[in-house]
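Retry 2 of 3 after timeout on previous attempt. Resubmitting structure tokens to design endpoint.
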């Protein structure tokens, strides 16, 4: 490690472990308080991140499979494939979200950043997108009848 890199690392550590003023201390939770020791990363944390990624990809594959099934059935039976075409971008959104979260968490784990690692907004946004797609599919079905 070169001298410049070492000084940069020391400055980062000083900022990370700097004492918190007493007025701000009363509003901090345990996650917000500065750590005095580096974060230990257990190998099972990496596997948990990968397991979560695989669960999201599984859900996306299920949605994509349903969309492709709807499209294939619709083209053979002469019905409109629009409901399947509406569901396909939702599956792609699930995959993109899963991949993004996996990389964000993996980077935070590798850097030994203190948690929490949960994603509060992503699942809600995906649920809203899925609900809008389902509602639009129902409306499309009613409009085509």
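Retry 2 succeeded. Sequence:
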């Amino acid at each position: 490690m070169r001298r410049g890199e070492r000084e940069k690392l020391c400055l980062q550590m000083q900022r990370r472990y700097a004492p918190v003023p007493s007025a701000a201390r009363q509003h901090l939770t345990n996650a917000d308080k500065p750590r005095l020791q580096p974060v230990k990363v257990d190998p099972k944390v990496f596997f948990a991140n990968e397991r979560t990624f695989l669960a999201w990809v599984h859900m996306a594959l299920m949605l994509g499979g349903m969309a492709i099934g709807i499209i294939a059935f619709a083209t053979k039976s002469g019905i409109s494939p629009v409901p399947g075409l509406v569901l396909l971008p939702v599956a792609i959104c699930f995959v993109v979200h899963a991949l993004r979260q996996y990389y964000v968490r993996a980077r935070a784990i590798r850097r030994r950043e203190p948690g929490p690692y949960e994603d509060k907004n992503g699942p809600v946004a995906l649920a809203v997108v899925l609900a809008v797609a389902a509602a639009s599919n129902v409306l499309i079905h009613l409009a085509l009848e």
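Attempt log closed. The helical segments are 3-16, 22-25, 43-77, 82-110, 122-144.
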